[in-house]
Specification:
The radius of gyration is 18 Å and the shape is flat. Helix content is 32%, strand content 23%. The strands form 2 sheets. A 3-stranded antiparallel sheet has the order 1-2-3, with no helix packed on it. The chain is of the alpha+beta class. The chain has 2 domains: 14-49; 51-106.
């Protein structure tokens, strides 16, 4: 890994989450972007952004989609679209989680 790659990795690895004047609303800064996390009104939040778990799933789906697009580009495979779906549900007893699913257009 060269110095440019190391510097780039350090920049994307920092996120700062801070509380706001609203009970469950959190503002997170990463790079020059601001993300809002909140809980639904039914749970005492103001629903001004996705839940923290929703943001986590979004990050995992985004990482998967970007990685697959990069791989397809390097292989020279045509890919006009890609979707990653990460289903979740609350389980009463420990079980295996459903596998992620995806779709390719190309």
């Amino acid at each position: 890994m060269d110095a440019t790659e190391t510097t780039a990795l350090r920049r994307v690895a920092l996120a700062v989450a801070r509380t706001t004047d609203q009970d469950y609303r959190i503002e997170t800064r990463t790079g020059h972007h601001t993300l809002t996390a909140d809980e639904p009104e039914a749970l005492g939040g103001t629903d001004t952004g996705p839940t923290p778990f929703g943001l986590l799933l979004s990050a995992l789906g985004s990482c998967t989609a970007i990685t697959l697009r990069m791989y397809a580009q390097r292989k020279g495979w045509p890919l006009s679209g890609l979707g990653v779906r990460l289903p979740t549900r609350r389980l009463r007893q420990p079980q295996r989680a459903p596998p992620p699913t995806g779709s390719f257009d190309g």
